[in-house]
Recover the amino acids of this structure.
């Protein structure tokens, strides 16, 4: 039984890893040998593929754009989402439930329903193809998930600590930033990881809202490169670009996998 | 919930049980606090999420081409046109196939792998997990950390008839007549080949999710099943699945929603709908109408697809509630 389990699981692991390893090898071969002998190991290590991918193909610029947009959006949505979740979870006021369900609603409708009108909202605000526009949209679309997840988290924090902070004379702002927010760290970490993966993965929103080539994020840049079918595609450079894109996240994942997998189960059990 | 003392922690569904801040006179601090904490993000959310959704329902009733400030109101004309649009039906059919096939294959595979990791250990003595199960879990999760568009590019190369990994592999194991198969170029194969890619991306994620859920099942239940002579397969189907039904139905909903979208994968693996539109999906068709400035028509498609998505989600969740098992 145990042996059979290992065989099946190993087969799946191979199915996952083989395409990745093959991509890694191919990223070190020249385009001709990629086409002619897909299985041969690289004879000479073509690091020049990486140099081209980074410079002339523009991965460096795409990566910078992605880091600016995803990084800013992530920080903003974590702060704004945590603040709203906190207010909704711990304060009584008229319309609290209404606001909460309004936010949940955004989680229910698929993005492609809103994307065409959204294009014109950004266009009219002169935000098409700008960092600011994309950042704000990312924040707005990651906001419902963030609020939903952290809402349940803030509800479980003990009331005594809140009262103690009030007795000590801390105002609303200080109570949140110095007392409640630090206690929500485990929840914040899980949400941040999911938001990061979600925004890093985003393709539809930048494709529609970011037509400016200089501001392309990685997913757009790689797409435009891979879809130039037929016309002398630089396969070596393409594979190198793929490796540059996926390697940092995979390495981070292997390092932090314990926390991440904990987050997966915590996140979806709610 | 760590506070055992005067625990005022909320119970599910209770509205009044949550701990609340006491009412105090509205100070400047309190007003600024609410404005920044809730007002500001909510304004952004309404501006960029809620208002486009509401506009979508309105513009789907117009012949909007983007430049007219007051597009002509055409009632349900866009929807009527959709009904007579063969391409739309082709796309919707493909989405329906994806929405059924993707959850089925992904979840069966993920459950099987999760079962092997958690209870696939030595058949003698106590039911236990396999040694090195953590390794398989970590590796299987890899594809989830890769952006969809990159997964698409990677598999576009794997499937490539010139020097692709798959055909090279088939050739190497002796299936020489398959070595030139155009996986993404053959109308009969394209959709299936793309399903493989999406399944590949998500099995690991749901496997991790199911492993966590199965670990939450008390070991005594598995012991009892084993002592009663229940085989591994039967235990998995009749004991594990009902006990983690919530996770399974969540997975069904998410994979079905993905099947109704699939835009990113199709953009790279089936540009313009694949061979003979055999892999065209509604989101793709919507996008191509958008790029041709047929905004009203594109939005009407979005509305239909959104309603289908909502119905599917609600349907799955309701049917799962009905079969709820209490532990």
């Amino acid at each position: 039984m145990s042996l059979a389990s290992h065989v099946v699981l190993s087969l799946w692991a191979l199915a996952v890893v083989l395409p990745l390893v093959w991509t890694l090898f191919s990223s070190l071969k020249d385009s001709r040998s990629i086409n002619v002998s897909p299985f041969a190991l690289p004879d000479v290590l073509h690091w020049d593929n990486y140099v081209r991918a980074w410079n002339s193909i523009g991965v460096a610029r795409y990566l910078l754009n992605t880091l600016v947009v995803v990084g800013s959006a992530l920080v903003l949505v974590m702060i704004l989402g945590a603040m709203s979740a906190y207010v909704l979870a711990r304060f009584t006021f008229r319309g609290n439930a209404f606001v909460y369900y309004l936010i949940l609603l955004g989680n229910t409708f698929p993005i492609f329903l809103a994307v065409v009108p959204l294009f014109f909202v950004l266009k009219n605000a002169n935000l098409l193809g700008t960092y600011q526009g994309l950042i704000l949209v990312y924040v707005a679309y990651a906001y419902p998930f963030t609020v939903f997840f952290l809402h349940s988290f803030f509800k479980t924090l003990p009331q005594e600590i809140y009262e103690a902070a009030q007795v000590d004379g801390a105002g609303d702002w200080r109570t949140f930033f110095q007392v409640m927010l630090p206690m929500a760290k485990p929840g914040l970490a899980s949400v941040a990881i999911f938001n990061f993966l979600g925004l890093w993965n985003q393709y539809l929103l930048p494709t529609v809202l970011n037509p400016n080539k200089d501001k392309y994020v990685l997913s757009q840049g790689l797409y435009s490169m891979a879809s130039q079918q037929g016309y002398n595609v630089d396969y070596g450079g393409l594979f190198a670009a793929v490796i540059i894109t996926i390697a940092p996240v995979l390495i981070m994942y292997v390092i932090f996998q314990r926390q991440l997998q904990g987050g997966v189960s915590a996140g979806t059990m709610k | 919930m760590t506070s055992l003392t005067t625990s005022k922690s909320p119970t599910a569904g209770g509205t009044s049980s949550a701990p609340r801040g006491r009412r105090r006179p509205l100070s400047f601090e309190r007003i600024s606090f609410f404005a920044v904490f809730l007002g500001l993000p909510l304004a952004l959310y309404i501006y960029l999420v809620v208002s486009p959704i509401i506009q979508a329902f309105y513009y789907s009733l117009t012949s909007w081409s983007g430049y007219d400030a007051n597009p002509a109101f055409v009632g349900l004309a866009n929807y009527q046109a959709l009904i007579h649009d063969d391409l739309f039906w082709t796309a919707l059919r493909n989405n329906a196939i994806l929405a059924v096939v993707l959850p089925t294959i992904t979840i069966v595979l993920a459950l099987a792998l999760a079962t092997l990791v958690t209870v696939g250990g030595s058949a003698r003595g106590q039911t236990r997990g396999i040694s090195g199960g953590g390794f398989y879990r970590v590796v299987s999760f890899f594809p989830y950390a890769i952006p969809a568009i990159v997964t698409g590019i990677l598999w576009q190369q794997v499937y490539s008839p010139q020097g692709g990994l798959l055909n090279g592999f088939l050739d190497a194991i002796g299936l020489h007549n398959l070595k030139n198969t155009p996986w993404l170029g053959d109308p009969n194969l394209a959709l299936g080949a793309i399903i493989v890619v999406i399944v590949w991306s998500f099995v690991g994620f749901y496997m991790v999710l199911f492993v966590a859920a199965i670990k939450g099942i008390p070991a005594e239940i598995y012991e009892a099943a084993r002592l009663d002579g229940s085989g591994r397969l039967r235990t998995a189907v009749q004991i594990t699945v009902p006990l983690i039904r919530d996770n399974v139905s969540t997975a069904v909903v998410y994979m079905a929603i993905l099947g109704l979208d699939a835009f990113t994968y199709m953009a790279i693996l089936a540009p313009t709908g694949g061979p003979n539109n055999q892999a065209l999906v509604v989101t793709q068709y919507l996008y191509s109408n958008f790029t041709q400035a047929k905004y009203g028509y594109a939005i009407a498609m979005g509305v239909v697809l959104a309603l289908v998505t909502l119905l599917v989600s609600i349907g799955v969740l309701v049917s799962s509630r009905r079969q709820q098992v209490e532990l």
